[in-house]
Each structure stands twice: as C-alpha cells, then as structure tokens.
Amino acid sequence: MATYEWIDVSGAQGYDPLADALDDVFQPEEITKCLAEEVTDAVKSVLVEHGYVDKDYRSTLYSFYAKKGRTYRRDCVRLHFFNGSVSYDEVRRDISCDDRSLEDHYFGYVVLRPTMKATLGRSVLSPGVLAAGGRAIQSEHQVNVLGHVLPVGGFPSMAQPTDIAVCAHVSCWAILRHYSERFPQHREYLIGDMARLASAFDPGGLVPSLGLTVWEAERVFQAAGCFPLVVTKKRGRDGEPLEDAGFYGQLMAYLESGFPLFVEISSRRHAAVAVGYSWQEQAAEPTRRFADAWERVDALLVVDDNRLPYRSVPRCAASPISPEDYSGQDIDRFIVALPEKIHFPADAVDEWSRRFADAFAAADDEVVLRRWFMTTISELRRHARKRASQTGDALLRILMELESAQYVWVVEFCSLAQWDKGHVTGRAILDATASKRDPVATLLLHDEELAIVFDRTKASGEHTEVHLRRPSGVPLPRMELNLGQVVRA
Question: What predicted TM-score, i.e. pTM, was given to this entire model?
C-alpha cells in the first residue's frame, strides 16, 4: 500500500529528517548526504512515496534478487522534489500551490531500491537544481504524483546496481530510456534488459556482471534498433591515446546534434553518458588557423552513475586530478546511437568543411571557427521562421523550399569576434543521407549577402546564386537547436 510523508528540508536540519523517514535498506545516511551536497537550495520540500512499484527494480528482482538467499522487498521508495510554493494536505493526501501551476514548482524524482547497497535507482531531475550550467539534452517525462500528472525535463539516470549491472549497462539504459521518452518509435527497455541485449545468446536469466566492453555496448544499441557508430581516438606507437582534434570535433558534432554519447574512459575503466556542455566565458586564443567548437568548450555535462546527473567535467585538467575524477581529455572512445537515415558521418563533414573554411575568412590571417551539427529540416525551418527578421525574406524562402531528406548537417563558420557575440559569417547545409562518394552532398551555401543553391539531381554540381538582400547591419545568429538551456532554479 502506498503511503506518503511530507518532509521540510529548508530548515537548519536540512535533509536529516528525510533519513528518519527511510528504512535502513535504502541507505538513508548515504542518500541524504548525497542530496545535501549536490542538490541546490531551491528544493524546500520532499514528498516521500512509500510502497512505490518500480518497473526497473522489478525487472531485476524476479530474475536475480529473488533467487538469492536473502529476502528482498518488492517495493521501493520514490522521492519527489518541490520548491517552497507547494504545500501538502495530509488529510486529503493532496499537494497544491497558490498559482495552481504545480508543474512550475516540481523538480523531478529519485527512486530508492531496497538493496542495502547502491540504492539510488531510476531518477529524472531537472538540471537546474543540480547546479548545472550550459546546455543539456533533455526530454519531457510525465510523472504521476498523487493523481497529478507533472512534467519534468531532464535526462534519466541511476546508480549501478554493482552486481547484475555496472556503469556500462547503466549508460546504455540511460540513452535508450531517453530515446523511448523522446521518440515514440523507440520502445522502452528496463535495466534488466541490458545484460540480455549485450549477450550473443539468451542466458536464460540474469547473472552477476563484471562489465561490458564497448563492443558489447554497441551490440546493445544494435539489438535495440539503433545504428551505433563507434569512434576511437588515435593512438601512438606506444599504444597511448594521442591529442586528436578530429576525435573531439566529431564528439562535439554528435553531442550538439542532440545525441547522448556513451563515452569510455579506459584509464579509469569507466563509462558514462555525455549529455551537454558549457562554453568558456573567456576563451584562449586558438593556436591553429582553423579551430573547432571543442576549443570553446569549458566543460562537458555528464550523467555518471557514481553521482547525481549533470556532473560537470572539465574539457581538460589544468593539474593532476584524483583517480575518481576525469576530464574530457581522458575520453578515448565513444558510441553514438544514430537513427537509420544517417549515412554521412561527422568525420566526412569535417573533411568537407575544411575545404570551404577559407571562403568564410574576412582576412588571410584570421582564425576561422567551425561548428557542425545535425538537425532535422523541419527544426531548421522552425528556427529560421522564429528568427525571420534576422534571416531575411529571400533566405527564409530558400529554406522553406529546399528539397531535402529528414536530416541535414549544418556547418557554421565565424571569426573569434563573431563567436563572442553569437554571430556567424555563413553556413553550409549538407544532406545527412549522402555518402562519402556522393559528388554533390551540399544543399546550400550562404553568407550574409549571397546564397548558392545546389541542384543535386545532376552530378556536375550545377547551382543557382541568389542575392539575399537581407536587412542592412543585421548579423546572422548562431544556431543552437538541439539542446536546452539549463535554467538554474
């Protein structure tokens, strides 16, 4: 039977009263310490939902924990987080707020498993209450709380159960759960499914796991109906990973495309999910003629099973870090689980765009910054329509009439001064379904004054030039389409 407790965490005691409300099988002291350290003061109250039936925990209970000598409870606890505007009516078992907009005051939930160890289960928390900054991949999750259906935008996470599933299983599960919430064509997978999908045969049950290789993780995504691409950092003759600009260019391209990345940190024997980034406020001067967006990154946002989500990982470590920590430089392989229709990979876009970078430089010695990311043609048109006054009528018409497949690559070029202002010199739009041998993968090239529209029905690369006649003095804005801005609560 479900029962509820309302815990005020805004006082001097903080989360201590919550520990008193939890049985010892949920690790109350460790959980409240974690919440106190990582959740911001925006959370004022916690609704404790006892007797919660969690499908991810049940997927492991019947096929693994029920076969052990110790008896494991079937029910979990779910913690719901609210700000100070929400009150609880114990008699009516209801929550309310003065403005009648509960969804504006709800920050998500955390499930606790009754496993005595690694009890942090399926969770979806708003990045704004975890001191995260920058931009993050998010999907909207619908949560039923006392009969109210409340949306929360976030990325799914959990701690590894440590026995039947470890960090790689949890990373695969988090990405597939995000896809099932974000895209209706993707089915839902539970944490108990991860071990089965990784196996080349049906093991007939769940057994303790020592981990997954990156190739077994690739098999998980294939079995789930995705089209995974494994990208590996180059290594020297001694086998050590090299500083590979092309590797990080691809990592940022897929991340900015809105695809969460399964990242491997082999030096830590660890896997996590990259879900976002933050830009540097004062970036150093690039040392190369052509620089990429990766050099403007301050930190990556990572869903790591050792912490609550949206951990900020520095792009590079200025000094030696502890064995438990890592930086973006320590990532030496990643998997991007792509949809079926993507055939033109990020490294091909990298190679193609280098040939055109000179054309977008205002001076021979000017540094040119490049960004490239994938989006849908409909999202591109929505962005252009929303910023019609900056886009201009002629360019807007070209984009609306552009004959394209569902997915396109967008390549943006800008100077350092333009980057700081959020402006670009120009763009290229490429067909993401093209192949590396396609004689004409380009759909459109344009700057502030001229657009070149390509006829891809002809191998000769025939094109039409259109003078845009955009509003004088109005710069082209940088496009950041696929990740949501993190708004701190």
Answer: 0.93
